[in-house]
TrEMBL record:
It comes from Alteraurantiacibacter palmitatis. It is found in: Cytoplasm. This is Peptide chain release factor 3. InterPro entries: EF-G-like_DII (IPR053905), EFG_III/V (IPR035647), G_TR_CS (IPR031157), P-loop_NTPase (IPR027417), PrfC (IPR004548), RF3_C (IPR032090), RF3_dom_3_sf (IPR038467), Small_GTP-bd (IPR005225). The keyword Iron-sulfur does not apply. Keywords: Cytoplasm, GTP-binding, Nucleotide-binding, Protein biosynthesis. Belongs to the TRAFAC class translation factor GTPase superfamily. Classic translation factor GTPase family. PrfC subfamily. The gene is prfC. SUPFAM superfamilies: EF-G C-terminal domain-like, P-loop containing nucleoside triphosphate hydrolases, Translation proteins.
Length: 543
């Protein structure tokens, strides 16, 4: 990256950007991982490295996040929606980074998935001892759906873990991605002595000074550098040379085009806890991650340099206070410069919405900015007029496409305490389904509706909001079903035959699309084999 103060430009990977107030290049990204791999720690250290927080843990400790979440869930919470940790923005080395939080753990929901539709790049954190875990895989699959480029960070190399080669092989095998190691640990676990960056030709070594770990940096080192030889045992040094030679032979060199198309991942090793490898990861985001990308839309994709404002809503956060039914819609700006007071058309309703109180996410120490540019996120408070998937734009007839609905992983029958209120319950469920909070399934046989969610937290949200907003006490009961697939059959006679044969397992969702409810994976597989012409889909695009 080159900053030319006189010309007033910054050059990132061959692209020139003017350095004026807020027109900095953007990097909009998320971090994906399995719980406990170190996402919270890494986020905090990245924010610290980027100057967004002065002391690690200042605004982003796990305790704070937990509190924020439980605040949000508490019905008696005062007016005000905590959105601060959803979008974290910082400016570093002439680039504006927008880091979108993807809640994990028990917060896991469709918002986590959909947030990935609003980023241009993802950092995948892997625990060096555990490799690729279930949730990493799920989140990765969503990234693949959109060909989102992935930067890999193998964390916890200060602890006993698996060999770097084994980890690289696993990524290549399980994710079908080429891996390009950009750095390498010098020893691991008890033998951990530092990191070597092939990319920067730099070694970070760990000294024991007064019992504390502190790094020595050897610049322009080269693997045979005498300073490196002097600092580590010959056994460790030999190991590094051997590994580096083997890695150069076995792994392809980093190819940015393959990375940007989602076929290759650059791999960085490090320790979030000890802050090793963080600076390299941040500069990788600056150097390699793509700027805001064109977004799929009808009648044609929206280019980030188009002058009119357009964006899509990818997430909704509701205020749990029943007296204030306001919600915050999170919108990714895809083109134009969004300003306070602007009026944008909603392509779903045909109505215009005035942006009187948009929430801009600002980097620390920045004066109040009243604009958002492509790649930025704005929060739009509203009273239920906006939904996940909505397009807001100055252009009429524009609609973003490709926001996915995901097959639910938890299916529950809805139990209504007062059977007289069945009509209200159906309305409430359909409203919440439209908002994107849950799927609703109406079985073709029987009258009991089923709700489907991908995270247990969504069930809590449904019952809390049904009570607060519709005065309904509802609970959930187990169903025989474990999973659901959207069905597509081109041939009409075959569609009729399929429905007649599988009627007991079929339902319609809130948009009247046909859905197959399966008791288990085995049953799903059996029916799929029986009906090879029928497409069973775990993801459905909202258009
Ligand atoms: P999350 O669940 O993915 O957000 O993970 P956390 O950031 O909360 O980390 C989970 C645990 O791993 C915590 O106890 C961290 O202190 C620990 N941890 C995170 N990064 C490292 C690391 O680089 N080395 C070691 N030894 N522990 C780490």
């Amino acid at each position: 990256m080159l900053i030319d103060q006189q010309a007033g430009t910054v050059t990132v990977e061959g692209e020139d950007w003017p350095v004026v107030a807020d027109a900095l290049p953007r990097r909009t990204f998320a971090i994906i991982s399995h719980p406990d791999a170190g996402k919270t720690t890494l986020t905090e250290k990245l924010l610290h490295e980027g100057g967004a927080i002065r002391e690690a843990g200042e605004v982003f400790s796990k305790g704070n996040r937990r509190r924020a979440r439980s605040d949000w869930m508490a019905i008696e919470q005062q007016r005000g929606i905590s959105v601060t940790s959803s979008v974290m923005t910082f400016e570093h080395q002439g680039i504006r980074f927008n880091l979108l939080d993807t809640p994990g753990h028990e917060d896991f929901s469709e918002d986590t998935y959909r947030t990935l539709t609003a980023v241009d790049c993802a950092v995948m954190v892997i625990d060096a001892a555990k490799g690729i875990e279930a949730q990493t895989l799920k989140l990765f699959e969503v990234c693949r759906l959109r060909s989102i480029p992935i930067i890999t960070f193998i964390n916890k190399i200060d602890r006993e873990g698996r060999s770097p080669f084994e980890l690289l092989d696993e990524i290549a095998d399980k994710l079908a991605l080429d891996t390009a190691p950009m750095s390498w640990p010098i020893g691991m676990g008890g033998m951990f002595r530092g990191l070597y960056s092939f990319e920067e030709d730099r070694a970070w070594l760990i000294d024991k000074v007064g019992g504390a770990l502190c790094p020595t940096i050897i610049d322009g080192a080269g693997l045979d550098d005498e300073r490196l030889l002097a600092a580590v045992s010959s056994q460790t040094h030999d190991g590094l040379l051997e590994d580096a030679a083997l890695a150069a032979e076995a792994c392809p060199a980093f190819d940015r085009t393959a990375f940007l198309s989602g076929d290759m991942t650059p791999v960085y090793f490090g320790s979030a806890l000890r802050k090793y490898g963080i600076a390299s990861l941040l500069s990788a985001l600056a150097r390699h991650a793509p700027p805001p990308q064109p977004q799929p839309a009808l009648p044609e994709p929206v280019e980030p340099d188009a002058s009119d404002v357009a964006g899509f809503v990818f997430k909704m956060q509701a205020n749990m206070d029943p007296n204030h039914r306001d919600r915050v819609a999170f919108m990714r700006v895809c083109s134009g410069t969004l300003k306070r007071g602007m009026k944008l058309g909603n392509s779903r309703t045909g109505k215009t919405i005035g942006l009187h109180n948009p929430i801009f996410f600002l980097a620390r120490d920045r004066e109040l900015t009243e604009e958002a540019r492509p790649g930025d996120i704005v929060g739009i408070p509203n009273h239920g007029t906006l939904r996940v998937g909505d397009t807001l734009s100055e252009r009429s007839g524009l609609a973003f496409t490709g926001l996915p609905d995901f097959a639910p992983e938890i299916l529950r029958r809805v139990r209504l305490d007062d059977p007289m209120k069945i009509k209200q319950m159906r309305k409430a469920l359909l409203d919440l389904a439209e908002e994107g909070i849950a799927r609703v399934f109406r079985p073709l046989e029987g009258s009991n509706w089923v709700v489907g969610v991908v995270g247990a937290l969504q069930l809590e949200v449904i019952s809390t909001r049904s009570e607060a907003e519709y005065g309904l006490a509802i609970g959930f009961e187990a169903t025989a079903y474990e999973t659901a697939r959207w069905i597509d059959i081109a041939d009409e006679p075959m569609r009729k035959r399929f429905i007649a044969s599988q009627r007991a397992n079929l339902a319609e969702d809130g948009d009247d699309a046909l859905v197959f409810l399966a008791r288990n994976g085995w049953e799903l597989e059996r029916v799929q084999k029986e009906w090879p012409e029928v497409s069973f889909s775990a993801v459905r695009e909202r258009i």
